[in-house]
Design a protein that fits this description.
The chain has helices at about 15-30, 50-60, 75-85, 105-115, 130-140, 160-170, 190-205, 265-280, 285-295, 300-325, 360-370, 375-385, 415-430; strands at about 35, 100-105, 120-125, 145-150, 155-160, 175-180, 205-210, 235-240, 255-260, 330, 340-345, 390, 390-395, 405. By secondary structure, the protein is of the alpha/beta class. The chain has 2 domains: about 10-45 and about 300-430, Aspartate Aminotransferase, domain 1; about 65-295, 3-Layer(aba) Sandwich (Aspartate Aminotransferase, domain 2). Helix 6 runs parallel beside helix 7 (about 190-205).
C-alpha cells in the first residue's frame, strides 16, 4: 500500500487467552495432545445448561418477533425489567429504561466505551487486568497503560494510596476501571475498598467503569456488590451480560448501566455518543435480550445462582488446598468467577529452566518461541510442550507478576484433580531444572 493503514495503537492489542491457542494447536500438530484450561466458557467445558432455561430460549425462537430487529438501545420490555431490578438494589442508584444500553456481549461494550474517550484522556485500571480492557485502552490512547496494582501477597488487594497518587499526578486520567468479581484473580472488591475508590472519583471529578460480568458468581463469604450500590452521585458505567450467568457465552448479549448520566454534562454527552454509535450498528441481537425477564424473573433462577456459586466455591477451594503448601508458590482463596491464580515467589523463575522435550521438532519450536518472552510465559510454553496443559500466563494480563491463571470449569472432579497434579509436577520439575 502507498501508506500505512492500521492505527499505531494496534501494537497494543494483545489477548493471550486466545493467542496461546495458536501455539497449542501448533504443538498438537506435532503430536502433543493438549488439555485446555485457558478459556472461560462453561458450556464448552461441559457444564449442562439448565433445561428450563433451554426451554425459554427455544420457545422464544419459535416467535417471529425474536428474528426481527429490536430498538437500538435494546428490547424495551427487557430494559424496563433490568432498570427496575437495578433500582431495587439496597442503596442503588435509580435507573430508567433509557439508562440501559445493549451491546453484542460485554466485550463489544468495552470496545465502544474506550473508543469514545478522547485520545489525550486516560483510564486508570488494575494490574493484572483483563486484556479486553487494557488492550482497548492502550489501542485508543496509543500510550503505555496507566495501572494500579493488585497485591498478590495480600489477597490481591489494591493500594488506595497508589490509586490516589496515580490520579493526582496524572491529570489526564478521566476514569478508573475495575473488574468485580475479578478476572483473572478471582478476588472481590470489599465495600470499604469500593467506597474509597468512589471517594477518589468524586473528589477528582472522574467517572467509574466496572465490569460486573461475574456479579452472580460470588462465594467464600464475598457479597455480590454492584457499583450502583456504592457509587452515590458519581457518574459510572457498569457492564453486565449473559455469558457466565445462564451460562450462554455464544449469545453475545451484554448491556451497560449508565449511572448518574444526567448529573454531569460531559458524561451525559459521552453516554449519548454511545447510544448514537449503537444506532449506527442498528441494534444488538434480539432473542437473547427477550429471554432476560423470563429467566432472571423466574423464581427458579435463584436456585440456579446458588447452586452454581456453591459448585465454583468448592472447586476453587479444592485448587487452593492443592497448591497452598507448595514451596515457591503464592495462592489465595478465590471469592468469585471461575478462575484461580497461582503466582511464583519473586526471582524464582529464570531463562535457564526447562522441561523435558524428547521430540526434536517440538524442542526446536519451543526454544525459538520462548526467546525474549516473560518468565511466566516461558514456563507456560514449556509446560504445554512437555505435559500438554494450557493455562494463561499472568503476563498476558498486562502484569509483571509471574504466575498463571487456570479455570475451575472442568466438571469431572477426578479429572480436574488429575490435571492439577500434572501442573504441580511440571512446576516442581521446572523449578528443579
Amino acid at each position: 500500500m502507498r501508506t500505512n493503514i492500521a492505527i499505531d495503537g494496534i501494537r497494543h492489542l494483545q489477548y493471550e487467552i486466545r493467542e496461546i491457542v495458536d501455539y497449542g494447536h501448533k504443538l498438537a500438530a506435532m503430536g502433543v495432545p493438549m488439555i485446555w484450561e485457558n478459556i472461560g466458557d462453561p458450556v464448552a467445558a461441559g457444564e449442562p445448561v439448565t433445561p428450563w432455561i433451554k426451554e425459554v430460549v427455544m420457545d422464544l425462537a419459535r416467535q417471529d418477533s425474536s428474528w426481527a430487529y429490536c430498538p437500538s438501545r435494546g428490547v424495551l420490555k427487557t430494559r424496563e425489567f433490568l432498570s427496575a431490578d437495578a433500582s431495587a438494589r439496597p442503596d442503588g442508584v435509580p435507573l430508567t429504561a433509557d439508562d440501559i444500553l445493549f451491546f453484542n456481549g460485554v466485550a463489544d461494550s468495552v470496545d465502544k466505551i474506550y473508543d469514545l474517550i478522547r485520545r489525550d484522556a486516560r483510564v486508570l485500571m488494575q494490574a493484572p487486568s483483563y486484556p479486553t480492557h487494557s488492550s482497548n485502552e492502550a489501542k485508543r490512547s496509543q500510550y503505555e497503560r496507566l495501572q494500579f496494582h493488585l497485591d498478590h501477597k495480600n489477597g490481591w488487594r489494591p493500594d488506595i494510596d497508589e490509586i490516589e497518587n496515580k490520579v493526582r499526578y496524572n491529570p489526564q486520567i478521566v476514569a478508573i476501571a475495575l473488574v468485580n468479581p475479578d478476572n483473572p484473580t478471582g478476588t472481590c472488591y470489599r465495600r470499604d475498598t469500593l467506597d474509597a475508590i468512589v471517594d477518589i472519583a468524586r473528589r477528582y471529578r472522574l467517572f467509574l467503569i466496572c465490569d460486573e460480568i461475574y456479579a452472580n458468581i460470588c462465594y467464600n463469604g464475598a457479597e455480590t456488590l454492584h457499583l450502583s450500590q456504592v457509587v452515590g452521585d458519581v457518574p459510572a458505567l457498569a457492564m453486565r451480560g449473559l455469558s457466565k450467568d445462564y451460562p450462554w457465552p455464544g449469545s453475545r448479549c451484554g448491556w451497560v448501566e449508565m449511572l448518574n448520566r444526567e448529573l454531569d454534562p460531559a458524561f451525559k454527552e459521552y453516554c449519548e455518543a454511545m447510544v448514537k454509535t449503537k444506532m449506527m450498528e442498528v441494534c444488538s441481537t434480539t432473542l437473547p435480550q427477550m429471554s432476560i425477564p423470563l429467566v432472571y424473573g423466574d423464581p427458579r433462577y435463584q436456585e440456579v445462582k446458588q447452586r452454581r456459586a456453591a459448585i465454583f466455591e468448592k472447586r476453587a477451594n479444592d485448587v487452593y488446598q492443592f497448591f497452598r503448601d507448595e514451596p515457591g508458590l503464592i495462592v489465595h482463596p478465590a471469592q468469585g468467577a471461575f478462575y484461580f491464580c497461582v503466582t511464583f515467589e519473586d526471582g524464582l523463575l529464570n531463562d535457564h529452566q526447562t522441561l523435558p522435550l524428547p521430540n526434536p521438532q517440538v524442542r526446536e519450536y519451543v526454544e525459538r518461541k520462548v526467546r525474549g518472552v516473560a518468565p511466566d510465559k516461558r514456563f507456560v510454553y514449556y509446560m504445554m510442550a512437555s505435559v500438554g496443559v494450557c493455562v494463561t500466563p499472568l503476563s498476558g494480563f498486562h502484569s509483571k507478576i509471574n504466575g498463571f491463571r487456570l479455570t475451575t470449569l472442568r466438571t469431572d472432579d477426578a479429572e480436574r484433580m488429575r490435571v492439577l497434579g500434572i501442573i504441580r509436577g511440571a512446576i516442581r520439575d521446572y523449578l528443579a531444572s
